[in-house]
Amino acid sequence: MSLLTDLINLNLSDTTEKIIAEYIWVGGSGLDIRSKARTLSGPVDSPQQLPKWNYDGSSTGQAPGEDSEVILYPQAIFRDPFRRGKNILVMCDAYTPAGEPIPTNKRYNAAKIFSHPDVIAEEPWYGLEQEYTLLQKDVKWPVGWPLGGYPGPQGPYYCGVGVDKAFGRDVVDAHYKACLYAGINISGINGEVMPGQWEFQVGPSVGISAGDELWVARYILERITEIAGVVLSFDPKPIEGDWNGAGAHTNYSTKSMRNDGGYKVIKKAIEKLGLRHKEHIAAYGAGNERRLTGKHETADINTFKWGVANRGASIRVGRETEKNGKGYFEDRRPASNMDPYVVTSMIAETTILWKP
């Protein structure tokens, strides 16, 4: 194994100018992450310098077998924490050979919204809280849980410390450092209320970059759990019963909200979100009805309400924002399996562009 490890950790810059680029894209389910690698003649500074590439869309549920070619357009570059050196990770979106975005390309419409002059002027900031659950490989049961049984009730696990409270911290810390290395604006991690469940935060990130960064952070986490031999789950309610679900709370502000008098803008934005509650819920992740029950720090899926410091609300405003009269708010409705391109752009569209 030592020879294999040595080969994996070879520093290519000692012998060649060539680098490896790992092209990443979202597969046909809307949550599966795919990737493949290619050799480039030398380092690159921007995605515009990278060649387009293709893949077999019939094997990812994104094209028929008789016309299976799908084209990858490079959109964002990150340092590769696995190969290191000058090697890169490349976030891509997918198009037909004729240049049309395929149906599962959610980045395309998001980019159109974020390139609207009114949205650019408001400079939307996002902080995305990605919750997830680590499962034992062969039984698909949370790490740290007894096989076929349950741990003690919730209470000691949130931000907990100790062998009987925190399960999988090595994976979590490896992911944290790998994201920082990659250039992702990861801002923190913590253990969650349900044992075996964790959270990382990405942001503040502006516009389309929030989606790019969260997808690549998910990719890195998938790779690390692959190495660690555990299964990564974004199921919004992985264990039924008196256990917290998994969400992707989305913190949001615009320039007008961050400026003096912004609290009035925040309340107007929340009012607009309430008017489009059903449309947002429909786009906020599959299986969310199992999570948004009105229990376990959620509002019922059919009810829209907001409040200051209320974790049982659809939208939570922080005490500091209320006190300062400006700041941000948190949309607590998105599920852990949401598409960040869809959620971030929809919030911007509703609060900035939509006229009720």
TrEMBL record:
> Where does the record say this protein resides?
Cytoplasm
Q: Which GO terms describe its molecular function?
A: ATP binding; glutamine synthetase activity
Provide the GO biological process annotations: glutamine biosynthetic process
What is the originating organism of this protein?
Dillenia turbinata
Q: Return the InterPro entries for the record.
A: Gln_synt_N (IPR008147), Gln_synt_N_sf (IPR036651), Gln_synth/guanido_kin_cat_dom (IPR014746), Gln_synth_cat_dom (IPR008146), Gln_synth_gly_rich_site (IPR027303), Gln_synth_N_conserv_site (IPR027302), Glutamine_Synthetase (IPR050292)
Q: What is its EC number?
A: 6.3.1.2
Q: What is this protein called?
A: Glutamine synthetase
Q: Which UniProt keywords apply?
A: ATP-binding, Cytoplasm, Ligase, Nucleotide-binding
Q: Where is the GS catalytic domain?
A: 106-356
Cellular component terms, GO, for this chain's entry? cytoplasm
Q: Where is the composition biased (Polar residues)?
A: 46-62
| Reaction(s) this enzyme catalyzes, per UniProt | L-glutamate + NH4(+) + ATP = L-glutamine + ADP + phosphate + H(+)
The region called Disordered is annotated at 40-64
Q: Please state what class of enzyme this protein is.
A: ligase
Q: Which family does it belong to?
A: Belongs to the glutamine synthetase family.
Primary location: cytoplasm
Write down the Pfam families for this protein, in alphabetical order. Answer: Gln-synt_C, Gln-synt_N
Q: Which residues form the GS beta-grasp domain?
A: 19-99
